[in-house]
Amino acid sequence: MIVSTVREDTAQSAAWAIDALRATGHDEAVRRAVTVLSAPDAKVDKELRTRLRAHFGALTRDVVDVPHDPALVAGGPIRFDALSPRTRDAWLHVTSVVAEGL
Does this model's pTM top 0.90? Predict the structure, then answer.
């Protein structure tokens, strides 16, 4: 799994991780991976998200979007009941997409 937020800096870090994996002979692992793009804020740069989906979609098996959720902003233990239904559904979808590749 490759995880990034829809931000240039974290996406660059994820891209570097992919480059390092590929450079060390893990091309197949990258191709089988799922990229998760998590929204860092309620307002997402749609153009950037489109570019990131295209970039990571060309390298990994799938790209899944996860919406912003205020319950995750503070960090720390995650209270499942505090997450929005949309967020819970998105992470359930991430889990199913990852499981499809196992």
Answer: yes
